[in-house]
Amino acid sequence: MKNLLFVSIAFPPKNDPECLQSARYFKYLKETKKFNIDVVTSGSPTLFMPHDQSLMRYEGGYRQLVEVQLFENKIVSFVLRKLGLGLLLFPDSKMTFHWQWKKVVRQIKKKPAIIYSRSKPMSSAFLAMKLKLHYKCTWIMHFSDPWAVTPLDEIPTSQLNKYQTAEKEFLEMADAITFTTPQTQALYANKYPHVSSKFSVFPNVYDPDDIRETPMIVNDKLRIVYTGGLTGKRNVNFLLPILNLICIKNALLLEKLEFIFAGPLDRPNSLFFKNPLFPIRHVGYLNQEEVKKLCVSAQILLVVDNPTEMKGGVFFPSKILDYFLCQRKIWAVTPQESATRDVLTGYSHQAFEHTEILAMADFLMTNIDEYTKKGNVSFQCSEIPDKYNARPNAKALSELILNLAPD
Fold this sequence. Notes:
This protein has 14 helices and 13 strands. The protein has helices at 17-31, 74-82, 96-99, 101-107, 123-135, 157-173, 182-191, 239-250, 267-272, 288-296, 319-326, 339-344, 357-374, 390-404; strands spanning 2-7, 35-42, 64-68, 114-119, 138-143, 176-179, 199-201, 222-227, 257-262, 280-282, 300-304, 329-333, 350-352. Strand 9 (257-262), helix 9 and strand 10 form a beta-alpha-beta unit.
């Protein structure tokens, strides 16, 4: 069996979308019985990644677990960014993870044949790179989202060169680079054609063991649920003109509609929920079991992407797959030609651009009318795409690992 070192700050039982993806790939890599897997991750909880007891089911099965205690503080990080000293947090606020690489080496008992890292946070990749150099072994680097080639302008221009230099170094040093979406792969192939032969796609996945019947719940109102973070450009401000339009056309319809949101908020997005004029409420941060319970209480599940023009479609919100497992109608607000639209293509779900206010108002009014007349009949969607099943994707990843690190 090959010695595989799995490096990721985002790892269960911490609660975070990337933690769930790490958990699912880890679970089914174990199932192949081809690897002795050691794990290097941050301590639980980690800032913005709270401990989630419901994810303990993914615990165990590794040969050795090395937990790195991070030195991070939300207030300090905020102040440094406000003072223009954000580069001190390079590559992110969890940089003390890779600073402690020598401590990690002292704890690892067996030399790895291959390292598999997942990021974001990018500090995971920084640690993996240092471990590759130390052990002189093969390294597969997974980019969950774009980094320095960012479509969201998250990196200040004054700091961009340092990020781009590091990104180029990583892409050249890694033996294989995997991305979550074909759109991200194309973005990087265009920027770095000289290393594009090392690129492949391993998408976000769902755990097939989580597939089960989810009977519809009868509500007094058509319930629309959103779970996940709302930060920066990902916001729900587009809802106000939609609901205003419905109010003008038929105000009584709003009495048959409710929106429930759950998940972390940044300060600007939290203001949206302070004094809602419409049936909209936010229920705070939930663990994974609570999220599932809320989702199956809905008739429609809402996905919101960043409204970025050309490149915004590279992101693949992993919650879409959890929504599929809930077997409810999905309403996506996303750019054209996005990864989200690709996932939903061929299924009875609806996708709109952020500016399609009239079309989304009509969509809501039609569904309110449908629910009032027929109840839950139109909202059960039982098809689940096998393309995103964790088991075959982890098997394909195991084959990539074995090809890169043969006996």
